[in-house]
Every structure is written in C-alpha cells, then in structure tokens.
Amino acid sequence: MRLLKPSDAKRYWELRLEALKLNPEAFATNYEEAVRRENPVESVAKNLSSKGNFTYGAFNNGELMGVVTLLQETQLNLRHKANILAMYVNPDIRGLGVGKELLTEAINKAETIETIEKLNLTVVTTNEKAKKLYTKLGFKVLGLEEKALKISDKYYNDEYLSLMIK
What is the pLDDT of residue 24? Predict the structure, then answer.
C-alpha cells in the first residue's frame, strides 16, 4: 500500500479501465468514453502529481490491485472538505480487507491536512459491501439521489455519505 506517483499512471489507467468494464454502475464515467480519451496516461500522471490529490494503491506481487483517491476541494470556502473518489478493488482480492486499508490510508492522510474537516463520498445503493465498509469506518448517510446514473435503460440510485474528521 502506497501513495501513487506519476510513474504509476499506466498501471492506474489499466486498473481504471478494468473497473469501468466490470463495475460500470459504480462510476459516472463509462468505459466507452474512457477508451476514447486522448492521452489518458499523461492525464493520469498529471492528476497524480496535482496538489490536493492523493491516490493510494494496493499492490499484490507488484501488480496494482486496488485504488482510492482523496481529493481536497480547491475553492477557499470549500477547502474544509475533501472527496473520496474512484475507489476500486480487483474482484480477485475483494473480501480480504484491501478496501478497508485503502480507505483508512485516505482518511489518515486527510487527518494530517490541517484544513480538511470533512470527507464526502457517493456510493451506488446496490453496493452493499461498500456501504457496509463506509459506515463501519464512520461515514453517515446524508441523502439519496434517485436515478443518479442511467446505464443503457437501467437507473441506479446513489447515497451521499460524510465523515467528520475534526
């Protein structure tokens, strides 16, 4: 488990495409949009070196198997908040505590940043395992957005969760 660097961009992008393909209901971006992006690895490398962006990766035998991003808001009136984004764990290692370790790393990092007081995330309501993990780590449900995503002709609802860290 470690903070990803720009040199990890290719591995991150490959895992991101896997996530979009295997769990499309968990992400606003769809696989087809993602593969059409110009210079995606370069964009990822830039994001991995952006101020306020912390992406953690879980590795197994040198292979990137899970990720989570902590992204601090940049506007002055919102800098007390950060978002947990793009969390994904490869199906082969789900249930082994990797997601909990990743999320704990992100929370611990947020706690070291003086200005961050609150973490926000969204989760599709059908992802019971993720919801259980988030609530176990102290996140509270703030609300529900019905029909947050539409994939083909199927709708998915999102729950909004928050964790006060200060």
Answer: 95
Render pLDDT for 95-109 as a digit per residue (tens, 0 to 9). Answer: 999 999 999 999 999
Q: What is the pLDDT of residue 98?
A: 97
| Rounded-to-integer distance, Cα 88 and Cα 100, Å | 11
CA distance 163 to 117: 9
The CA–CA distances, whole Å, from 59 to 31, 90, 108, 162, 166 equal 23, 11, 19, 27, 30
Report the phi/psi class of residue 39: left, alpha or beta, with left for phi > 0 and alpha for psi in -120 to 50.
left
By the 8 A CB rule, do 93 and 60 touch?
yes
- Looking up tokens 């926000």 gives 120
- Give the chain's end-to-end CA distance (angstroms, integer): 25
Full-model pTM = 0.94
SS3 call for 73: coil
Max Cα–Cα distance, the chain, nearest Å: 44
Which two structure tokens, joined as six digits, stand for 131?
A: 């919801």
What SS3 class is residue 43? Answer: helix
Q: Choose among 54, 53, 58, 65: nearest CA to 22.
A: 65
Residues paired with residue 144 on neighbouring β-strands, in sequence order: 159
3-state secondary structure of 1: coil
pLDDT digits (tens, 9 = 90+) for 62-77: 999 999 999 999 999 9
